[in-house]
Amino acid sequence: MLVVAFLTELSIMVLLEWLPFERPPVFDVLIDSCLLVLVLGPFVWWKISRPKLEQLRREREKGYFLTSRMDEGVIAFDRDLSVLSMNEGARRLLGVESEQGRRLTQWFPFRSIDELEARLGSEGAFRVTLDDGRVLSCVSGRLVRSDTYLLIFRDVTEEVALQRWHSLVVAALQAASDSLLITEADGRVVWVNRAFTELTGYEAAEVFGKTPAILKSGKTKPEVYRALWSTILAGQVWSGEVINRRKDGSEYVAGLTIAPVEAEGGERYFIGIHKDITERKRMVSDMMKLDRLAQAGVLAVGVGHEINNPLTYVMGNLELAIEELGDAPSSSELRSLLEQALEGARRIEKVVQDLRLLAKREDRLRQRVDLGEVARRGLRVVEHQLRHRARVQLDLAPGLFVDGDPGRLGQVVINLLVNAGDAIEVGDAEHNRIELRGVRDEGQVVLEVADTGRGISEEQIGKIFDPFTTFKKQGEGTGLGLWICHEIVREHGGRIEVESEPGRGSVFRVVLPAASDASGAERVAAQGGRARKASTGEASAAGEARGPRVLVVDDEPAIGRVIARRLGGFDVQVVHDAQQALERILAAPGAYDVVLCDLMMPQVTGIDLAEAVRDVDPELAERFVFMTGGAFSSEVHEFVESTSLPVLQKPLDFDRLRSAIRSLAERRG
Predict the structure, then answer these.
(1) Which of these, 581, 586, 578, 585, lies nearest to 607 by C-alpha position?
(2) Is the pTM of the predicted complex or chain greater than 0.85?
(3) Which long-range CB contacts under 8 A does 461-465 form with residues at least 24 apart?
(4) Residue 421 to residue 415: CA distance in whole angstroms
(5) pLDDT tens, 420-453?
(6) Are the CB atoms for 352 and 303 separated by under 8 Å?
(7) CA distances for 78 relative to 88, 111, 114, 212, angstroms
(8) Residue 76 near residue 150, CB atoms below 8 Å
(9) Greatest CA separation found in the chain?
(10) What is the pLDDT of residues 338-393, one digit of tens each?
(11) Residue 409, CA distances (Å) to 155, 318, 377, 439, 523 in order
């Protein structure tokens, strides 16, 4: 460049020498200045501008290097969306080798630069899904002082899949019916699901940063928590039960499973699964009680049969002996001993009846019952137990008639009165009351037993009718009394209710359907009255006509003998097996008005005998009265459930037996 300047200056000087006029001095100065600029200008440009250009070149090369090596794709395009250039990342992501002749609309869903800028303005960044399912995240911008635009994008397909999976997992955990919570290694809660908040009453924000200790009720033994922590800190899963307390203070039994987990960074967390198993625990308890009832029912069937058969003739003979003694003063002591023995036998009978109820055997013979009179009789039985505890007040309206079993209804009254007395401490009878009230109200008969005793808590009220549940002192109750009352009332089509408050006493209310049709029931009651007269010996007086002719069939001779004695006034013949009975019937057709037959006998049962008689004397087969000590095979049970003939339980109620015999004998034409 200096050589060019020197040659240029030499040419100018030669040219000036050739000029025909004389040069003024100033002209030489100007010429020299121009020559100086001409010589030094290129030098100055080379020294100042060249480094800047070099820097621009390097930056351009550097930018190209960066964009070509980026994982993200970069596309330069103009306002018409025509692609000017793209880096290697863009080619790789879009699957193209060259950008020439391509437009941005080939891949991205906008048709103009204004649409792109509007979308960026509302979203900042946006995602597009390619035809092959890949998802690209895009940002864009305009180059400074240029109509060239850049679009930068990256493949976020895996991120989107992970986000969707994460959302799905969280949604599934939130929708889980079990309560879930996650804690850090020190037990502080970092996440809970909706079921947790619904179960405990705590919102998520109320438990974050706290420990599950806020749920402790104080009723779980400390060793349970020690075992819990030692297990999960050892990296093992712990399962068990704890008693927790909700935010509102109510308690529940939680089935708890805690599993330790480790995150990618090595941090440890614990995942807890809570289940409210309060209801399940109650159901298991009920099932255990039902199982005990089933076992008791099996026991009742076997024991009842073995006890009731001998009890029949024991009680029958005691009653006969007492009648034979009469009212002679010389026999008073012996009579007292026999009456005590009879009372003991009746207590045994009551226990067996209670056990029989567990086996769900229902008496079929019902009659019209004055519940008011039943209540008075029940009170007379237990009055001596109550006099030292409270004053008893009666308020029984007349006409409290129901259809039912007077003995079983009397048992309900006695149990309720005894319980009322047990709720009152001995020693202050003047200030305590037991009220026995009865009214008829809109087709129902309501009998109430109210006391001023200690009362019953709300928690106990929910359990008092459960079998084997008692709140009396150890050894003072079996837990069957109120359950039996409940079952008897239910079998009579009624209900039993209770109102109570601790320290304010209790009211037990028995509600039964009032008797609607008195004619048939009154006839049975009248027959029972006639039978009771016969039991006093009036019907067997000299010169009086004998009653129905009865064939008694029982495999125990002692039972046959006592039945023959107790059915005074009836013409009774006794045999001890079904074969003998059938022979008697065949030998004397039409000789018997009624057959009184034990259901369960060796070899041939009472059912078999009735079927055999049906073939030879169908009318007599409809005049059978069956007896049972309680042992039921499946066949016998099905027969008892389906037959319309009387089925009486041993030990026999001879008043009911006479009533049944007379009723059947009247059918004979």
Answers:
(1) 578
(2) no
(3) 461/498, 461/500, 464/498, 465/496
(4) 10
(5) 988 888 778 888 999 999 999 888 999 999 999 9
(6) yes
(7) 19, 13, 12, 61
(8) yes
(9) 199
(10) 888 888 777 777 666 665 555 544 444 567 889 999 898 888 878 877 888 899 99
(11) 85, 25, 11, 16, 20
